[in-house]
Amino acid sequence: MSGTISGVISWCSRAHPLNQLLRDGQAWRWGAEEEAARKDLLAAVKSGTLLQIPVRSAPFTLYTDWSRSGLGAVLCQKIKGEERVVAYASKSCSVTEANYSSYEGEGLAAVWGVTHFRVYLQGRHFTLVTDNQPLLWLMKNQMLTGRNAWWAMRLQEYEFDIQHRPGKTLQHADGLSRSPPPPKEPQMAAAADQVQEAGSGQ
């Protein structure tokens, strides 16, 4: 696997047959496709450059994406003019998260990505790249309620700029969000939904 952006996109696609076996309720079937994927990934690990070790002086860029299957995040740094991957992450959406609107889902992905990589990002200025243009409004609005207010509060402890880019330019994060691993951690939506219900008096 290459530590570059294009390498992450390639890795996600090549790992898809194996990721499918990790889904809840998925029957275990190890056939020719799965074996070919295993050999391909093993060869890539042996021959390629893996993840970039974080460089203290280099700024971070975080890419996030949401799909109805899951959330994806890719943390990068530009080293000698080339953007390289420091870490990447994904998780499955809960039933609630899968039913979010596109605007809400992309907001969730941004908050989850930032908090997931907080050990790298807290106390440092970074750039958040998303295809969710309304997120700019979310961070500037002072009259938020419910879920949006909770998300804005979570992000207030970080210092970052937001860049909007079309979804087609975020294929690395998109690939991670569409082939996530099974759920292994509490879903962020649960706490956000509780805040929303409390604020509405339900």
Name some characteristics of this structure.
46% helix; five-stranded mixed beta sheet; Ubiquitin-like (UB roll); single chain; 9 helices; alpha/beta; 20% strand; disordered C terminus; 202 residues
What is the residue-mean pLDDT, rounded to a whole number? 76
Biggest β-sheet description: 5 strands, mixed
> What strand line-up does the widest sheet have?
3-2-1-4-5
**In oligomeric terms, what are we looking at?**
single chain
Number of structurally distinct domains: 1
Per CATH, the architecture is: Roll
Unreliable stretches covering 5 or more consecutive residues: 1-6, 194-202
How much helical structure, as a percent, in the residues?
Answer: 40-55%
| CATH fold naming | Ubiquitin-like (UB roll)
Quickly count the helices.
Answer: 9
β content, as a range?
A: 15-25%
- The count of DSSP E runs of length 2 or more, i.e. the number of strands, is 5
The dominant shape is: flat
* Separation, N- and C-terminal Cα atoms: 49 Å
Radius of gyration: 18 Å
- CATH structural class: Alpha Beta
